[in-house]
Design brief:
The chain has eleven helices and eight strands. By secondary structure, it is of the alpha/beta class. It has a single domain, classed as Metal-dependent hydrolases (TIM Barrel). Helix 1 packs across helix 10 and helix 4 packs parallel to helix 5.
Length: 322
């Protein structure tokens, strides 16, 4: 079972009162998965909860994409944190104003752009709640980026960093992007330097899962989503239960274990749901996430946090208000 527990601590963003029940519904068994493992994956509650917050969606840039999102997300009572370049800011402002029950605005800036600070300020003034960073020319924890992070901390804008392997297109053109500059442990530095802002790493640092988890273990403001190829890979190789080996600690064991953060969240409480796909990918991402929860025997109250209550707490959103 993924580590759990609910310590009461003023620095903790997870809360203690959310205990949503998740109704039961059977999932199909993947081909090639042994019966015993399949039973594990489908044991316990399996239907998606009444509230979902997708912490990782890229703006599609068109009104048609906006309407596709509304048609897909609204019936599931799902909201999406939409990562938006400056060129699409007006489109997203309009989408948020027209469909506040679906869209949550995040800005996206290039850390190496001389206008990065000014763009963060602009996104904040226009009501965006978070910022996304990707493909830096230096390591994420290089001090030259601290001015941007400091501003996000001042504004209390949640920071989402791509971590781990980065997608790559076949091209003859040289590219700055390198996965080595986006290792999850760089977020440890950022959390320690800027303790009053929440930080999220994408993809659980794929393939540096242990590194990501250990960084989170000592930082109560650090969270990770498991979007991208991670769950696809674990399902394909029949290793979905591996997650509990990576996320192994419980919040209440610190009293007897000096190597666990006192007052910090349990391991599962550091994980948040996300898709990082087009609207049509929501259903398949929900199914994969459910399989992961079942395989690792995650309790219902922790599942509810992972599905959306953690992010709602971070962003100051009432999950019961449309």
């Amino acid at each position: 079972m993924i580590g759990t527990g609910y310590p009461i601590d003023r620095r903790q963003f997870l809360g203690d009162g959310a205990k949503l029940s998740i109704a039961a519904s059977a999932l199909g068994v993947l081909p090639g998965v042994p019966a015993a493992r399949a039973a594990q994956e489908t044991a316990g509650p399996r239907k998606a909860p009444p509230f979902i917050l997708d912490s990782h969606v890229h703006c599609g840039g068109t009104e048609a994409w906006v309407q596709d999102m509304v048609r897909t997300y609204r019936p599931r009572n799902a909201r999406a944190c939409v990562l938006t370049w400056m060129k699409d800011m007006d489109l997203m402002k309009k989408a948020i104003a027209g469909h506040p029950d679906v869209f949550i605005g995040y800005g996206r800036v290039d850390l190496d752009n001389v206008n990065a600070v000014r763009e963060v300020e602009t996104f904040k003034k226009n009501g965006f709640l978070g910022m996304k960073f990707h493909s830096p020319q230096k390591d994420y924890d290089d001090p030259s980026y601290f001015q941007v992070y400091r501003l996000c901390e001042e504004y209390r804008m949640h920071m989402l960093f791509h971590t781990g392997i980065s997608s790559h297109r076949v091209s003859d053109e040289p590219q700055w992007g390198s996965s080595s500059r986006m290792r999850p442990m760089f977020l440890d530095t950022i959390c320690r330097q800027f303790p009053r802002v929440t930080v999220q790493g994408a993809h659980l640092g794929n393939p540096w899962y242990e590194e990501a988890a250990e960084a989170a273990r000592w930082n109560p403001t650090l969270f990770f989503d498991v979007t991208g190829s991670t769950l696809i890979k674990f399902i394909k190789t029949g290793r979905l239960e591996r997650m509990k080996d990576v996320l192994w600690w419980a919040s209440d064991e610190a009293q007897n274990n000096p190597h666990t953060l006192k007052g910090g969240p349990g391991a599962g409480e550091h994980i948040v749901f996300g898709t990082d796909e087009e609207p049509a990918g929501l259903a398949s991402n929900i199914e994969r996430f459910q399989r992961m929860l079942g395989a690792n025997q995650v309790p219902d109250e922790v599942r509810a946090k992972m599905w959306g209550l953690t992010m709602a707490k971070i962003l100051g959103i009432d999950p019961n208000k449309s």
